[in-house]
Write a structure and sequence with these properties.
Layout: H1 2-5, H2 14-31, E1 38-43, H3 46-53, H4 63-72, E2 78-83, H5 90-105
Parallel strand pairs: 1-2
Helix pairs in contact: 2-4, 3-4
């Protein structure tokens, strides 16, 4: 939702959208002073979760975004990356669409 409210627009691949949204969301959390706490990233793309949890360098096109997210993890005492189905994550998607509509009005 934060990514949509921050103006994330464009035709990105799923493997780029999820980490980019995470970068925007995590940066917002850091700017509001919530670092040093635990965060939970819940996404519906298992490949991105696997990339975020991997210790090796990701040489894909989206690898720079994955690396940026991993670097932002250092601001927190604990990070959990978990995958949920799109159906389970439907509330977040619905709220993101709602935020997008409101953002476009103002």
């Amino acid at each position: 939702m934060i990514a949509v409210s921050k103006g994330m627009k464009g035709g990105f691949s799923v493997k780029a959208t999820e980490p980019y949204a995470a970068v925007l969301g995590i940066r917002t959390i850091i700017q509001t002073g919530f670092q040093s706490t635990q965060i939970i990233l819940e996404m519906d793309t298992l490949g991105v979760i696997n990339d975020l949890n991997a210790a090796n360098i990701n040489w894909s096109i989206e690898g720079a975004l994955v690396e940026e997210v991993q670097n932002l993890f250092h601001f927190f005492s604990s990070v959990i990356c978990t995958c949920s189905s799109r159906r389970c994550n439907q509330a977040a998607h619905t709220l993101a669409i709602f935020v997008s509509c409101i953002s476009n009005l103002g």
